[in-house]
């Protein structure tokens, strides 16, 4: 799983959304050749991101300078210019976060590995990595194919329509970079959701051990499950989950905020132009076909993003529900130290809720997805 994730992150590095190498500053006297190579690669990637940032700014400025507005399309021109500017800002956030939040991103990946190790070694739970890898590959194939099917008709339409007044070709890199960043976040959320589901199953078996013997699994060591050591392992593993989600919000909060805003503007604008094409505005009767194919991949990405974020939030609520059941089932004969850890765990869940926000501006869940749908329509 780690090798496949690194292969995907190398693609993200090409689009500037990930800086893999770390800057070595710990022991200068004992730094070996490998550390020097990593440091050199780190600075090369920082320079590459700075070059990308400079390039997209130059492209933006030149596009505005050479842009011509056809008569009668002044309002459309303002709309596409605003959308083009938001895509530039989103790309700038992605590139700057990759550089400035590189340590938080690296800590996030390390904490992901720590969660997997904790569940396998401390909780003795076998993680189905093959199923997780298959789900991630299916996710990538689905969204990449859907995005290509959406971009190609729009390319043909803008090539055929000679009086096209948008910034599609100048902003094609912006579009690809935003979608790669979104897919990167979707992969992280898929992995976290998979681990959270296994964690809930582990906690559910602890509840079954206390309450309903008929729901116990035959090949499960319930004698170990009811120990204080296992409860402490569950408590500390949840702490790792919370730290991972906080790191995710830290290194991707601004880009996530910009991606959502840009997607909402993109959907609103294309929905407006879709209605115009139905009315044969400016002689573009069949232009709605390209708009529709462009509309669907963006909707799929935003819906998938909100769906996974809401799933993770719900799984965090399930953890709280299962722990409350465990506290109610706790007998008076249980050791005082075990009861104390249960109370500490309950307080921890109240203070450390799992949710994904875009720099605290809004929380990504089903309610937010419905509000976006109402805004677009």
From TrEMBL:
Transmembrane stretches, start-end: 48-66, 78-100, 142-161, 254-274, 286-308
Pfam families linked: 7tm_7
InterPro entries from the UniProt entry: 7TM_chemorcpt
Protein name stated in the entry: Gustatory receptor
Family, as annotated: Belongs to the insect chemoreceptor superfamily. Gustatory receptor (GR) family.
Highest taxon of source: Eukaryota
Protein's gene: LOC125778345
Membrane association type: Multi-pass membrane protein
Function: Gustatory receptor which mediates acceptance or avoidance behavior, depending on its substrates.
Keywords: Cell membrane, Membrane, Receptor, Transducer, Transmembrane, Transmembrane helix
Cell compartment(s), UniProt: Cell membrane
